[in-house]
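Quick one before lunch.
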Amino acid sequence: MAWVSLKIEAQDNNADLISDTLMELGALSAIIEDANAETIDEQPIFGEPGDPPPGIWQQNLVSALFDEGVDVAAVIQALQQTAKLGALNYTTETIQEQDWVRATQSQFDPIKITDTLWIVPTWHESPNPDAINIVLDPGLAFGTGSHPTTHLCLAWLTKTVSAGSSVLDYGCGSGILAIAAKKLGADEVVGTDIDTQAIQSSLYNAEQNQVEAEFYDANQYQSKEFDIVVANILSSALSVLAPALAKSCKAGGKIALSGILREQEAAVSAIYAEWFDMSAPQHMDAWVLLTGTKKCAT
Ligand SMILES: C[S@@+](CC[C@H](N)C(=O)[O-])C[C@H]1O[C@@H](n2cnc3c(N)ncnc32)[C@H](O)[C@@H]1O
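Model of the S-adenosylmethionine complex:
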C-alpha cells in the first residue's frame, strides 16, 4: 500500500482555505506547516494564556495525504476552481507503507543534556550507562528534553540541586524536571500542573524511573517553601504567577524560569527582581532561562 503526499505553498491568508478544500476533495489528512521550519527563517508562534489565538505563519506549506492513484492534476484544478485561486506551486511524493512505529521511534534518539545527564527513550540503550539516565518516551504531556527550554532547565538543575534539596516543579508537564531533580539527589520533590494529562504523565514517568515525587493539580496545590523552584511556562503565566512562585521559594533559595522568548526577557526579569537577585540570563535558540536567588526579608 502507498499514499501520495501533496505539498502546496500557501500564504497566511489562504492556507486554511487550501487545507479545508483539500479535505473536501478527498484528502485523508491535511496539515499546515511553517514553510521555513528548521531553517534560520523559522517563525516561532506560541499562544499565551489570555491572549487571542495566535495566527499562522506568513509562508506556509499545506501537506495533504491522498490514496495512491489520485489524479493530482485534477485535484489541483478542482482546488483552484473551488477556492478561486490562481497558479499554485506544489510538489508530490509517494509514501510507501512502512513500519510506522519503528519510523516514529527512529525520530527520537537519546538526548545528552550534560556529560552526566541523558534522556533516553525506552527503546534505546543509554549511550552512557554510568550517567544519570531519565527514561522517557514522547507522550501527550510536554517535556521530552528536546525543547531548548527544558534543556536549559535540566542543565541548570544539574548545577543547582544538591543532596537533600527540596524542589518545586511548577508546570511539570511530563514530570521531566521533577524526575531529574530527584535523580540528582533532591529529597522532597513536588510537581504541579493545570493539565490533568500532565499529572498522569508525570506520575507514570516517575514510576518508570523508580523515583518518588508528588504531583498535584495546580488548583489543589497547597503552597509551601522550597529550596529550589523551577517553572518552565510561558512568560504571561510566569508574570501572573510571580508572587506565588516567589512565596514558594525560601529566602536564599534558587529559582529558574523558562518558556520566555528573548524579547520577553527584560519584562519578566524586572517582575521577578522584586523578590530575587537575578543572575545573567542564559540562551538557547530563541529561548531564555532566567535564574535568581531569593532575597532575604528585610
Ligand atoms: C512548556 S511545558 C513544561 C513542561 C516541563 N516542565 C518541561 O520543562 O519540559 C509547560 C507546562 O506548564 C503547564 N502550565 C501552564 N500554565 C500553568 C499554570 N498557570 N499553572 C500550572 N501549570 C501550568 C502546562 O500545562 C504545561 O504542562
